[in-house]
Write a structure and sequence with these properties.
It is built from no helices and 19 strands. With 247 residues, the chain is mostly beta strands. The protein has 2 domains: 132 residues, Immunoglobulin-like, CATH 2.60.40; 103 residues, Sandwich (Immunoglobulin-like). The radius of gyration is 28 Å and the shape is elongated.
Length: 247
C-alpha cells in the first residue's frame, strides 16, 4: 500500500490480507540463542546460533500438522537444522518453539552484514505460506589508526638516524561491533634498509572501540641516505606507513 499527497513524503507499507475462511499461519517473531558462544543474544562471527521461532494462526480455522522450513543462500551461513514441526495451531493461537533452527556463521563475515533467511510454512491441508527475515551479523574491524617512530638506541637527538635503533609504536583499534580474538601482529617492509628486531607482537582480543598499543623494534641500515622514506606495513591490520630517516 502506498499513500501519497502533494507536498508530503510518500508513505509505503505492507498490509496483510487474510482470507475469510481456512487457516492462515504467519511468522510472529523469533529470538536468538547463542548460549554456546558469548551468550549476548546477538549474532556474531564464527558462532553457532539457535533460533526460537513463533507462529500465529491469523485465519479462522485450525491449521493441522504445521511444519516450517528455514533456509539461506548466503555464503557466510551454514544451515545446521532447517526444519521444524509445530503441530496443530488453532485460530488466533500463538505457538513458540525454542532452539528449533540452527546455523553457523563464518569467521570471515563482514561487520553488519545482513543475512536473508527464507521460510516456508505448510500444513497437511496443502496450504503454504512463505516469507523472509533478515539478521544482522557483528564482526570486528581492526584498523591501525596511528604509527609513531621514536629513537630508541642512538645519539639521543630525537631523530631516526642511519645505524640507530628505533621503536615503531602502532595504535590499533577495533571499529567493529564484535570483540576480536587474540592473535599475532607482524610488521614488514619492502625496503632492505629496515631490519626488524621484534617483527611480531601478540595482539590481545579487543572489545568494540577498544584500542591497543604495539611496539616494534627496528634498526636502520647504517648506509641509509639522509631523507630516505621507508615504508612499513603492519600485518593485514594496517595500510602502508612511512618512517623518515634524518641524520
Amino acid at each position: 500500500m502506498v499513500i501519497t499527497k502533494q507536498n508530503y513524503f510518500r508513505y509505503q507499507d505492507k498490509v496483510m490480507v487474510i482470507a475469510t475462511e481456512g487457516p492462515y499461519v504467519v511468522k510472529n517473531g523469533f529470538s536468538i540463542n547463542d548460549s554456546t558462544a558469548n551468550n549476548n543474544q546477538m549474532v556474531d562471527y564464527d558462532e553457532d546460533i539457535f533460533l526460537n521461532f513463533v507462529l500465529k494462526n491469523v485465519g479462522v480455522e485450525t491449521a493441522n500438522n504445521v511444519s516450517v522450513t528455514v533456509s539461506s543462500e548466503d555464503t557466510y551461513v551454514n544451515m545446521i537444522e532447517g526444519t521444524a514441526v509445530f503441530g496443530s495451531i488453532e485460530a488466533d493461537q500463538i505457538v513458540e518453539q525454542h532452539n528449533v533452527f540452527a546455523f553457523h556463521i563464518a569467521n570471515n563475515v563482514p561487520d553488519q552484514h545482513k543475512v536473508r533467511f527464507n521460510y516456508t510454512i505448510g500444513d497437511d491441508g496443502g496450504n503454504e505460506w512463505t516469507g523472509y527475515f533478515n539478521i544482522t551479523v557483528n564482526a570486528p574491524i581492526l584498523e591501525c589508526v596511528s604509527m609513531e617512530a621514536e629513537e630508541w638506541i642512538g645519539n639521543d637527538n630525537g631523530n631516526i638516524d642511519p645505524g640507530e635503533q628505533a621503536k615503531l609504536i602502532f595504535t590499533i583499534q577495533n571499529h567493529g561491533h564484535a570483540a576480536s580474538v587474540q592473535g599475532q601482529a607482524s610488521a614488514s617492509s619492502s625496503s632492505d634498509l629496515l631490519h626488524f628486531l621484534t617483527p611480531e607482537q601478540p595482539l590481545g582480543g579487543l572489545a568494540p572501540q577498544e584500542s591497543a598499543i604495539l611496539d616494534i623494534a627496528v634498526e636502520i641500515d647504517a648506509y641509509t641516505q639522509i631523507g630516505t622514506s621507508i615504508p612499513v606495513n603492519m600485518s593485514t591490520v594496517c595500510g602502508e606507513w612511512r618512517i623518515y630517516v634524518f641524520g
